[in-house]
Structure to design on (221 residues):
């Protein structure tokens, strides 16, 4: 009996991740571990926002760059941009709030509010109730999904469903909903781990004529 049990365990271990049943905790743990090992990353994505209050749906493409410890750049084809240059976070959203850019110190709290990976994978089991949500093949890649529900009120979302790649444990897709009903659907169309990214990729140049709103002081100039 013991020999058969050992053989069964060996056979199970030989199965690809996609063929095994996985708990939500196991999925989020390997995703968080993979995220912590990344020194840099580049991903292209498609984002769809659905607003039930206005009855509108908007789809845009973009590119996100991240480099440890505190460099972030998200460029949307709409012209919107989020940039963290190491000390300052810039939010430039001309598609919805033209004529201004918000400037604030870049800290752990607002990192999670703008960086999807940090939002989901920074101490996830402390912050969320995690449950398994099945599996799917996305863009030819096997994934497992998890549902994340914040344990405390969360301004970013009330619930999220995140698909984790079985091979490299990266995020491949996510859906989230905010308290006011806004729905965000994001598909990662390409992902590169640990590319060589220059610091200049994360700088933000304030466009001419754009007002700076400084949220550290409340001043605008």
């Amino acid at each position: 009996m013991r020999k058969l049990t050992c053989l069964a365990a060996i056979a199970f271990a030989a199965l690809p991740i996609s063929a095994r049943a996985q708990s939500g905790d196991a999925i989020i743990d390997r995703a968080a571990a993979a995220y912590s090992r990344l020194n840099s990353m580049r991903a292209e994505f498609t984002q769809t926002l659905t607003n039930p209050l206005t009855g509108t749906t908007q789809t845009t493409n973009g590119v996100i760059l991240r480099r440890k410890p505190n460099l972030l750049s998200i460029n949307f084809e709409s012209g919107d941009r989020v940039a963290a240059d190491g000390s300052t976070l810039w939010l430039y959203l001309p598609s919805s709030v033209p004529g201004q850019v918000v400037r604030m110190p870049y800290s752990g709290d607002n990192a999670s509010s703008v960086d999807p990976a940090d939002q989901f994978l920074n101490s996830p089991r402390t912050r969320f109730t995690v449950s398994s949500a099945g599996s799917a093949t996305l863009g030819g890649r096997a994934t497992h999904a998890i549902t994340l529900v914040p344990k405390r009120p969360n301004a970013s979302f009330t619930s999220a469903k995140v698909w984790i790649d079985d091979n490299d444990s990266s995020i491949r897709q996510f859906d989230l909903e905010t308290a006011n009903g806004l729905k965000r659907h994001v598909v990662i169309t390409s992902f590169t781990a640990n590319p060589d990214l220059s610091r200049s990729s994360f700088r933000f140049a304030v466009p001419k004529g754009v007002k700076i709103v400084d949220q550290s002081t409340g001043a605008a100039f």
